Amino acid sequence: MGNQKPDIERRTERGAYQLRGRVWIEGPDGTFLGYGRVVLLERIRDFGSISAAARSMKMSYRHAWKLVDAMNRQSRTPLVTMSTGGRGGGGAKLTPMGEGAIETFWSFYRDFKTFLEQRTRTLDL
């Protein structure tokens, strides 16, 4: 999607003030979705593989698999389905819930970025 983390600056005579923040969705078991997890989901969708998605993010397969497993366990229904290797090799695919999770996160993210931009304009320090 090409989104970047919000980093808003307000220039003054003395330098730049920055209003910063991060947004994530947390459940009873900890972080459910955040910037990196959503990028991982998008890469899984693009590559059809957890391994390829992990490589593209310079992340170990084990770490990527643990993140996917945690998201799947915390969701009502899995975000990613996986098939084991074999003749044609394994693979991973986003479910409709996974696609919806991506859209929901980016919607909140855009709202948060707008909030930061609006509040930065009101800084009078």
Notes on the protein architecture:
It is a single chain. This protein has 125 residues and is α+β, with helices and mostly antiparallel strands. The protein has a domain of 81 residues: Arc Repressor Mutant, subunit A (Orthogonal Bundle), CATH 1.10.10.10. The protein contains four helices and six strands. The protein has a two-stranded antiparallel sheet. It has a two-stranded antiparallel sheet with strand order 3-4. Helix 1 crosses helix 2, helix 1 crosses helix 4 and helix 2 packs across helix 3. The longest helix is centred in the C-terminal third of the chain and has 26 residues. The radius of gyration is 18 Å and the shape is elongated. The chain starts with 6 loop residues before the first strand and ends with a helix. The mean pLDDT is 89.
